[in-house]
Design goal:
Layout: E1 7-12, H1 15-23, E2 32-35, E3 43-46, H2 48-51, H3 61-67, E4 72-74, H4 78-95, E5 99-103, E6 106-110, H5 120-135, E7 139-144, H6 147-157, E8 162-164, H7 170-174, H8 187-195, H9 201-206, H10 209-216, H11 218-227, E9 243-254, H12 257-277, E10 280-291, E11 296-306, H13 309-323, E12 330-338, E13 341-342, H14 354-370, E14 403-405
Parallel strand pairs: 2-4, 7-8, 9-14
Antiparallel strand pairs: 1-6, 1-7, 2-3, 5-6, 9-12, 10-11, 10-12, 10-13
Helix pairs in contact: 4-5, 10-11, 12-13
Length: 406
């Protein structure tokens, strides 16, 4: 591939289902649905056998059961999925110097320059083979000059396949595909494009960029470039222990339990909002308390990957309850969420209902429009502004502290 950038996108095939089949081979070749067991639950993942009936992720479980009545329903084990994801990550880290873990089951790997020594296609095949041999998990990949084309190529190669898109062939490869195949095109954007008469990428390629800018503003330009096979984003180095957090130092040391509990809850709520905003989930919660004598104590707990308030807030309050000494004045409290990976709300679908998913979506929409503190839970309503947050997932520092006096 000469001096061109070479990026491969790797995606574990039907990851949650594949892990379940490792533990129970009798599930092979059967329609499997992972998610909440009740009719109010939501599909977290499903096997290719179930997808043939129209079942897909984030679908209400009641609808999925109707479409595929013979499917085997499994609640899901987020701890097991996290562990298998870690195994795959370690293999990739041993093989290449630069990779990005974009979600629990997806990776971008920068192979630029390696064609001189290994041959990029040969190396990608070796990584795929090693993952499948050592973990038992099927994985597919696409190889091209950029992230967008490689990710789309992976989708066309699934399941258990691989596809190479040579430099200069990106546009003809993309042209016959639906615009829904472009990463980032959700239902609303798709409706807008269909209203413009755009169903296939070829039509989008032929549209004037200025029209897309007028219609969708800056996202329209990005979308037009992706349709042309243009994507200059780099592979971002992956660091396992990224975190976000906030602290509050009080103007006057306090022993007001109600105030402290309210603030801890509000801190956790605000941080989980930023997780969802950055399409991240966390696996560790830490609470810190500094007393008036400047002695500082912290306590942390591992949790299944999540970005949901109703999982993280109770755990945060539980840690604070264990940590707090009611006989001492408090000078500072802090909350931190760590072990972050991509994944958004997906990891919560094993036990949460469609109503809860819709509630978070509505709350976050209000916050995105009117600010972080435009809407709060009742138990955090009395907390003053916790501090200014930058977007922790736009390439800035992974550790954020908003430390202000109140």
């Amino acid at each position: 591939m000469g001096s061109e950038a070479v990026i491969t996108h790797m995606d574990l095939d039907s990851f949650f289902v594949s892990v379940e089949r490792l533990h129970n081979p009798s599930l092979n070749n059967k329609p499997i649905i992972i998610g909440g067991n009740s009719d109010r639950g939501v599909v977290a993942s499903c096997s290719y056998e179930a997808r043939k009936f129209g079942v897909h992720s984030a679908m209400p479980m009641k609808q999925a059961k109707f479409l595929c009545p013979d499917a085997i329903i499994i609640r899901g084990d987020s701890h097991s999925y996290s562990e298998h994801s870690r195994m795959v990550t370690e293999i990739i880290a041993e093989e290449v110097p630069l990779y990005e873990k974009s979600s629990i089951d997806e990776f971008y790997i920068d192979l630029t320059g390696m064609e001189k020594f290994f041959g990029t296609w040969k190396l990608a095949m070796h990584i795929k083979s090693r993952i499948e041999k050592e973990t038992g998990l099927p994985i597919s990949f696409g190889l091209s000059s950029n992230k967008t084309v490689s990710k789309i190529a992976t989708g066309t190669a699934k399941p258990h396949g691989q596809r190479l898109i040579d430099p200069g062939t990106e546009k003809p490869f993309l042209a016959p595909l639906s615009v829904k195949k472009i990463p980032g095109v959700g239902n609303e954007t798709y409706k807008t494009l269909r209203n413009l008469g755009i169903q296939y990428i070829k039509t989008l390629q032929e549209m004037p960029m200025e029209l897309m800018e007028r219609t969708l503003h800056k996202p329209g330009i990005d979308l037009w470039k992706k349709a042309q096979g243009i994507d200059n984003r780099r592979v971002e180095p992956y660091h396992e222990r990224k975190s976000i957090g906030t602290e509050r130092t009080f103007e006057r040391d306090t022993i007001d339990v109600a105030k402290l509990t309210t603030l801890v809850s509000a801190m956790a709520e605000n941080l989980t909002y930023h997780l969802r905003k950055g399409n991240k989930v966390c696996a560790c919660v830490t609470v810190k308390v500094r007393y008036s004598d400047f002695n500082t104590h912290s306590l942390q707990a591992r949790i299944p990957y999540t970005s949901a308030d109703h999982h993280i807030i109770p755990k945060t309050l539980e840690l604070f309850e264990k940590l707090y000494n009611r006989r001492l004045l408090v000078r500072l409290i802090g909350v931190r969420l760590s072990d972050l990976v991509g994944g958004g709300f997906q990891m919560n679908l094993f036990e949460d209902s469609e109503e809860i998913a819709n509630l978070y979506q509505a709350m976050d929409k209000i916050r995105n429009r009117f600010g972080d503190h435009a809407i709060k839970r009742a138990n955090g309503i009395d907390a003053k502004s916790i501090g200014r947050y930058d977007n922790p997932f736009d390439g800035g520092p992974p550790i954020l502290l908003a430390n202000r006096r109140s």
